[in-house]
């Protein structure tokens, strides 16, 4: 990998700044500075649409070792607003690597910075919270750049779904015999999610966020899925009302991350912004039904505000917190059951599709199938 000697500057909205070297594209970029603790999986991280308008700081000290390949993208492009690494690996070494990370960042116009103290930067964000930031190779005066940062919109109040969602439906065929059909609402979906459903015999109809309840019911689906996605869940009113209609229609529901926050809102809970969020691939989560702990991949800056102590009545049945993060008791999953205890819908704040990340939570895709099957049986008996 060629490293330029072009200087670059990173400035945070509170005035703290770091000087380093240009990495990837040159230019100037703005976003919310957040840190991710994943030691692997930078290609999946950079192509995760949930990172729209965020400048991601890698806490792993060296990034780029495995280059960039043509298989691991989680969507059609890189979405991060900027990338911050301590040491950009000079060498790429992997049998699947097609080009270097630096080349890919430049080809996609993504501005980065390296050769700065990412440990100090991460500690600052951990103590003060995620905040607006800029990286520039053209404006190297921190006082000037911080003024531009202060003019940028905050992540709180940001509605970014329209930036990332598909414009037309896409069908992912079931692998092997088709056993189920699901509508997956694309709020910023990662490709591994429909892939893991398809492997289990589900035909997945990925629909734009503008899809209506009629679009969904016309497909004759067995269940509905809402994906991960960028921005503040407090702004996702359209998705909340669509999901309310889905639950009214009695369709089984499964949601991931943004899909958990939207489920929470449809159930009547609020959402709030975490100080610095959960981003990484080794976050411990407890399934409260079984007591089992999963090591999970996570990427969220907001969370659902729901009581851990008791169930909450809703018009469909009882809602409860099914999973919690063992680091800080943040809500990591929700479940809705009817009077007979049948699951009507469930969701998790973390990433069972695990791209990148551990595979502990893949069982949740099987649970979705069980919930759809139970619903079919009930439907037949009714
Ligand atoms: N990965 C996601 O779906 C993130 C959801 C939401 N944008 C958050 O930051 O919490």
UniProtKB/TrEMBL annotation:
CDD domains: GATase1_CPSase. The active site is at 257 (nucleophile), 351, 353. Residues 1-181 are annotated as: CPSase. It is an enzyme of class 6 (ligase). GO terms for biological process: 'de novo' pyrimidine nucleobase biosynthetic process; 'de novo' UMP biosynthetic process; glutamine metabolic process; L-arginine biosynthetic process. Pathway: Pyrimidine metabolism; UMP biosynthesis via de novo pathway; (S)-dihydroorotate from bicarbonate: step 1/3; Amino-acid biosynthesis; L-arginine biosynthesis; carbamoyl phosphate from bicarbonate: step 1/1. L-glutamine binds at residues 50, 229, 231, 258, 261, 299, 301-302. GO terms for molecular function: ATP binding; carbamoyl-phosphate synthase (glutamine-hydrolyzing) activity; glutaminase activity. Composed of two chains; the small (or glutamine) chain promotes the hydrolysis of glutamine to ammonia, which is used by the large (or ammonia) chain to synthesize carbamoyl phosphate. Tetramer of heterodimers (alpha,beta)4. Belongs to the CarA family. Small subunit of the glutamine-dependent carbamoyl phosphate synthetase (CPSase). CPSase catalyzes the formation of carbamoyl phosphate from the ammonia moiety of glutamine, carbonate, and phosphate donated by ATP, constituting the first step of 2 biosynthetic pathways, one leading to arginine and/or urea and the other to pyrimidine nucleotides. The small subunit (glutamine amidotransferase) binds and cleaves glutamine to supply the large subunit with the substrate ammonia. This is Carbamoyl phosphate synthase small chain. It comes from Propioniciclava flava.
